[in-house]
Design a protein that fits this description.
The protein has 163 residues and is α+β, with helices and mostly antiparallel strands. It has 4 helices and 8 strands, in the order E-E-H-H-E-E-E-E-E-E-H-H. An 8-stranded antiparallel beta sheet has the order 1-2-8-7-6-5-4-3, with helices on one face. The longest helix has 19 residues. The radius of gyration is 15 Å and the shape is globular.
Length: 163
């Protein structure tokens, strides 16, 4: 994988999806963009015209988070909430998250691993679902395309933050 390339998505087991992506920024900055609401709001905005009026992230073990997106002209709503099981600043976040209304099925485990690779950061996001059907439902939503769109926005934010 080269940094800045589109993400890599694999399904190593019947219940997991692993998303890998490189970023041209140090791990502490990528981690900050995942855990600081002022930065999250600048890249995790969804499709053009969508807003994120609710962005809460309590970066500690036992902490919670919630993101809400609203579509243009009041059309569309999406929200996800999570509980942080374990967090190791700048290296790892293990959480349990669930989209409102069961949009992505029942709660699932989301693990984020940030590591230094060359001059940048390798992010590995491991999503563990309750079943093969749950995993396949998640992959059928176009999640990979949506994540890459957000990661391109994160690339731009990381470039701005590094001057």
């Amino acid at each position: 994988m080269q940094f800045g390339d589109p993400l890599s998505v694999t399904t190593p087991s019947d219940t997991q999806i692993v998303i890998e992506r490189g970023f041209v920024a140090p791990p502490h900055l990528v981690y900050a963009c995942y855990t600081q609401p002022s930065l999250i709001r600048r890249w995790l905005t969804g499709p053009d015209g969508w807003t994120m009026p609710v962005c809460i992230y309590d970066a500690r073990s036992g902490g919670t988070y919630r993101f809400e997106w609203h579509g243009p002209g009041g059309e569309g709503f999406l929200a996800v909430s999570g509980e942080i099981n374990q967090i190791d600043a700048i290296r790892y976040i293990d959480s349990q998250e669930e989209f409102d209304g069961g949009v992505m099925g029942p709660a699932y485990r989301a693990e984020l691993a940030f590591s230094l690779e060359g001059q940048g950061t390798k992010l590995v996001n491991t999503l563990t679902y309750t079943s093969l059907a749950h995993r396949d439902m998640a992959t059928s939503t176009g999640m990979a395309e949506g994540m890459e769109m957000s990661f391109k926005s994160l690339d731009r934010l990381l470039a701005k933050e590094q001057g």
